[in-house]
Amino acid sequence: MFGKLLKQEFKSVGKWYLGLYGLSIVFAIILGFWVSHMSQATDSDSFIAIMLTILTFTSFGAIIAALGLSTLVLIIRRFKDNIYGRQGYLTMTLPATTHQILLSKLTAAIIWYFLSILTVGLSIFIIVLINIGWTDLLTGLKEIWVNADFQMIFKEVFVGNLTPYIISFLIGTVGNVLMLYCAIALGHLAESHRVLLSFVAFFVIYAILSTMAMLVLNRTGITEHYYWFTSAFNIVFCLITYFATHYMIKYKLNIQ
Fold it and tell me: Which residues span the membrane (predicted)?
């Protein structure tokens, strides 16, 4: 049942996301060719050329901002509407456990979040690639491969801060989504002003989390293993918010 729920999550908003991803890449291609043209044009300092460049960069920035904002909005709306809106009556009558419903939404949210990051990275890569070309790119990569100190890289990745940072970032992302879910669930315990109370709950949870993290860091003086500490701290936070959200959905559900 979990697979069917996850498939439905992607089917419901997939066209919107894919359209936005495609638009971002199209703008990246246009911007890449425009930057390449302007770097070779003799009239690149003209007023029209400057305005067109600004307009293109602004449009690309707006698409990237819309990508991030729409991802956040859809994560919130999918959870709120499917569980606490009118769709909740159907959702909660499905032959699925509360864990399956919650985990399907969490999994889909995390996947869309990282696909958005990947799209931004791909868009920037396209702009760079168009301007430097495959030949120069491959030549640069070859030089890096030949001159790279792999022993130092291995030490930095697996012994240094890169791996702990990546793990901390991944767990923190899950924690952020669960914090949104928990705040929405808390806000919908009330009979009115649910959206406002959900915002208040989110900032209260965030303030408590930040305060606790700073207190622990100040008392322990952890610096060398900071990212491992944040990973462990976020795991505990994820478990608390997950089971708190699960409890409120299963036992305190208050559908509009």
Answer: 16-35, 47-76, 110-134, 162-183, 195-215, 227-249
| Residues whose CB falls within 8 Å of the CB of residue 119, separated by 6 or more in sequence, listed in order | 21, 24, 25, 67
C-alpha torsion angle, residues 25, 31, 36, 41 (rounded to 10): 160
Q: Is 144 among the domain residues? A: no
- Is 172 found in the same domain as 231? yes
Our CA angle for 149, 150, 152, nearest 5°, is: 70
SS (H, E, C) 160-203: CCHHHHHHHHHHHHHHHHHHHHHHHHHHCCCCCCHHHHHHHHHH
Residue-wise pLDDT tens digits, 94-119: 777 888 888 888 988 888 888 888 88
Task: Render pLDDT for 72-96 as a digit per residue (tens, 0 to 9).
Answer: 888 888 888 888 877 777 777 777 7
pTM above 0.85, yes or no: no
Q: Residue 229 sits in which domain range?
A: 149-256
Amino acid at 245: T
Name the domain count of the chain.
2
Q: CB–CB of 31/54 below 8 Å?
A: no
Concatenating the DSSP letter of every residue in 9-65 gives: HHHHHHHHHHHHHHHHHHHHHHHHHHHHHHHH-TTTTSHHHHHHHHHHHHHHHHHHH
Q: What's at 72, amino acid-wise?
A: L
The beta-strand segments (E) located in 69-129 are none
